[in-house]
Every structure is written in structure tokens, then in C-alpha cells.
Amino acid sequence: MAEAQGARVPAPAIAAFIKDAMMAVGVPDADAAKVAELMLEADLAGADAHGVFRLPQYIRRIKAGGVNPKANIIVEKTAPATAIVDGDNGMGHLVMQRAADIAFALAKDTGVAWVGARRSNHAGAAGTYAAMALPHDMIGIYSAVANANHMPAWGAAESLLSTNPIAIAVPAGQEAPVVLDIATTVVSYGTVKAYKLQGKPMPEGWMVSATDGKPLTDSANSGEGLLMPIGGHKGAGLALVLGLLAGVLNGAAFGREVVDFNADDESACNTGHFIIALDIARFIPLATFKSEIDRQLRDLKASPVLPGFDAIRLPGEQRRTRRAERMANGVPVFPEVVEQLDKLAGELKIKRLAR
Length: 355
Prior knowledge:
About 50% of the residues are buried. It is built from ten helices and 14 strands. The longest helix is centred in the first third of the chain and has 19 residues, at about 90-110. The strands form four sheets. The protein has a seven-stranded mixed sheet with strand order 2-3-4-13-5-8-9, sandwiched between helices. With about 350 residues, the protein is of the alpha+beta class. It has a single domain (about 5-285, about 330-350), classed as Ribosomal Protein S8, Chain: A, domain 1.
């Protein structure tokens, strides 16, 4: 997604506004602060369609009863290296924070851990959760069943697959950690929503019409289209298997059971996720690993570039630079989003977003 353009808002102001809004609809203080922290992290990393942009929708679903603001999240350890988290229909950010904490604790004992989650909700940017492994000197892998079906099985004209993202975070030494965060569609639906909000046409190749299969570029009509998978049938296959692992394996929604949380504010989504943690030191000495990762990344970046490219960019490199820049100079927020947030402040009777 192209980087957001708009007013620069200080990061602490965004977190404070999110917390105030969450508390206004019944989310307890500590939980509201954690949701604000994780939503802000998406904005800082440049996942502009997954941070404060999503707040009005989250608040609307909580008020309508679609999300439980005071969820009792339960963890069941099912074996030495596995666990399942029941989110009690709570905010996905809180469910996945708990799942990640459990995964890292288990992996310290066993070297590897797989934690699934069910009865959860949209949790924002996938990379946020994979990157939680980095301070633990672990590799993190995260995926989820996205909260609406926008992609068909390859060759089909009916959306029964979601954008099902996958994120992988790998620590480095002096170089930026490798953080790959991708949807299995050419673009995330959050990006489509951002284009629609701004009245911008979509590039050809993002969506096709569900009736005639022709390219669809009018973002106002995106609800009538199908998102295209990355790599043709390969992306559709990847979305399928990730959905099975995050959905069916956890007793969570998949296929026709997926609730479109863009259109339905009242139904529980039963969103499924999983997170995997790998303790690097169980495979190779940590210092050796980080040194070798640095060497390999530098070697890749030293490659000659093709015509039309000015540099070689690796996953996670710009994430680190962007985070530092936005912490220092503020987060750019679309004017249309600022307008929505001001309206939300009025409805909730809280202070407007400081800027």
C-alpha cells in the first residue's frame, strides 16, 4: 500500500485516543491500553490500513454486540509445545498477545511452540505478532483467517477464501530484522477500503468483477469484485492451507462460516489464528546465527540492480526506518480518517485526536 499522506499526528496522541475510545465502550483500562499499543504499532510500522484507521469499525462492532469488551480469555495447554487460546469473542489484539506470550514461554522450554486461537476477532497487522518473537531471540510465524471472504478458489466466481495473511520475523544482528508481512491476495482488503474512503481508483490487477471476470478498478464498486491472489493458483493454494491451519484446526471459522465484519456488526466472528515460535539457540548458537544473517543480508543488498530499480529493499528494512521516523515526526493520517475520528469522538464524548 502507498504510504499514508495527511496530517502528522504524534504517536502518543494516537495511542491515547484509541485507549479513550476503547474505555468509552466498556473495555477495561489495561486492556484498552494494550489494544492501543498494538494498533499504534501497525501505524508506526507503516501498515496504515490496520492501525487507527480501523478504530471506528472496532468501536461500532463492540457497541453492536459483535465483540465482547470484557472477554475472559482462556488458555489450554494441550501438550508440552502446544496450546489453544479461547478468546471469548474478545478483541483480537488481546487474544493474540496472550497467544504470543504463551508461545514464547513454551518455546523456551521445548525449543518450538505452536499456539492456536479461536473465538477471536480481527487483530490488525500480521507482522505485529510475528515481530513479538524478536526480543526473545526467536523466529516468529503468524497467520490468521481474515475477517471476510474476498478471494475465490482458483477459477471460481464465488468468494470462499479470505486474504489470509502470513508474517514471518527473523532476528538479525546489526542489520534490520527480516519481517515479511503479506496477504495472500495482491493487496489487502484494508488497502481497498482505504482507497474507497479516499475515492481513489484501484490499479488494474487488484480485483476482477464477479460477474464477467474483467478488471475492476472503481473502488466504490469493490464490494462487487473478487480480490486476486498473489501468484495466481499458488496464492489461492496458500490462502487455502493457511485458512485450514488457522481456522479448521482451531475449531474457528473458515469458508462459508466466515463472518464479513465489514457488513455485519452483531455476529461473533470466531476468528482463528496461529503463532509459531522457534528458539534459535536450539538450532545454532545465537551469536553465530545473527552474524550469518547480517552477512547474508548485506550480500543480498550488494547485488547489482536491474534497470528501473534504485536499490534492493529487503522485508523489514523499511519497517525499522519508518518506525523510527514516525516515532520522531508523527504518524501521517489520511484527512478522511481524521474526519471519521473526530466524528467518533463526538459520538463517544471523548477528547478529539490531538494534532
